[in-house]
């Protein structure tokens, strides 16, 4: 078994080392985000901009499990590539806690009166989160098993290259797009089988990911790179599951950040709840029938360019 000290928190770094001498185009737009941002069709957006007499090469750098604290690690590489705009798709998972619950366990409804004594496991989870909710911890090496898995994931032969079909691809980390559009009944059944409980949005003063996002924006803006934030779309199934108070708290928190730093923020979370474009409860299908998502992103970019 291989035990490597290298942990690739952000595949952007290895990708950058591969393509830094090849991507020389002046007008670039980078799209950041998790798998919820991956379905954005960059060819479609480039074409919309071209029709409006704007020439940009767009790179969708979304990867699974993205967090601002991970993106912050590769901020120097991003700056050196000098994009004109960074469009960042954010979501509730980045800023909150979610607890997995086995269906056989007793689940206390949030509307019920809780017990006076805390559940030991939940108390441990909360204490552990407070300990790990900081950028310093995120940079520490994890267990040998995790290190090995993360290392192997981004190694190809003997070189530190992201395993992609094309390392110069404009979507280097989107290897297995979810193209199928599923009906609501199937999505809901699948979601119930994966039942989780949303804990809470961490308060802004101690929210590692919010602080990292703020730092990213400040650094990019200082380097004349414009930033656009948007919240990724969700199904009604997911929105019904997400506690309303936490949903409101997240919106307020990001709006405050947007206002303080004077950058645009677009909330798409409820835009497509009635549309049949979904692969699951929180992912738009990567499908030509779901191009409304890409079209809205193109209109946002166009609007911000023409301000």
What do these coordinates show?
This protein is α/β, with parallel strands linked by helices and 307 residues long. It has one domain (12-305): Rossmann fold (3-Layer(aba) Sandwich). 41% of the residues lie in helices and 11% in strands. It is built from 13 helices and seven strands. The chain has helices at 12-19, 42-51, 68-73, 75-81, 92-95, 120-132, 135-139, 144-153, 184-193, 208-222, 236-241, 244-261, 291-305, and strands spanning 28-32, 57-60, 85-90, 96-100, 196-201, 226-231, 265-267. The strands form two sheets. It has a five-stranded parallel beta sheet, sandwiched between helices. It has a two-stranded antiparallel sheet with strand order 4-5. β1 (28-32), α2 and β2 (57-60) form a beta-alpha-beta unit. α2 crosses α13. The radius of gyration is 20 Å and the shape is globular. The termini are far apart.
Secondary-structure-based class equals alpha/beta
Strand count: 7
Might you state the CATH topology name?
A: Rossmann fold
First and last CA, distance: 55 Å
Q: H/E order of the elements?
A: HEHEHHEHEHHHHEHEHHEH
- The radius of gyration over CA amounts to 20 Å
Query: Into which percent range does the helicity of residues fall?
Result: 40-55%
Average of the residue pLDDT scores: 80
CATH homologous superfamily name? SGNH hydrolase
Shape annotation: globular
Please give the largest β-sheet: 5 strands, parallel
Strand line-up of the largest beta sheet: 2-1-3-6-7
